[in-house]
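Tokenise the fold.
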Amino acid sequence: MAITLSDLHTESGLKSFNDFLTGKSYISGDKLTKDDIKVYAAVLKNPGDSFPNVSQWYNCVSSHLAASFPGKAVGVSLAGKADPAQSAEAK
């Protein structure tokens, strides 16, 4: 089942996602998928106790990622939302 999630940086977006995750461990089935990774990148941090389903999901995805990528991250900041294809064409 396809789902559209938006505004995951807001309380209303997190509430919708929290409601969707009720009774689920992952977004698309019973295993971690690309859908989870895509949404994980959009959720800026673990939202904590206010959204228990999202918090549990976030911790689970984090755990899988930590096991797959054990190297220490030094920190990266991403800014802007330009389409990479458009940016390349402008050069």
The domain at 11-73 is CATH 1.20.1050.10 (Glutathione S-transferase Yfyf (Class Pi); Chain A, domain 2). The longest helix spans residues 52-68. The chain has a mean pLDDT of 88. The helical segments are 11-20, 34-42, 52-68, 84-90.
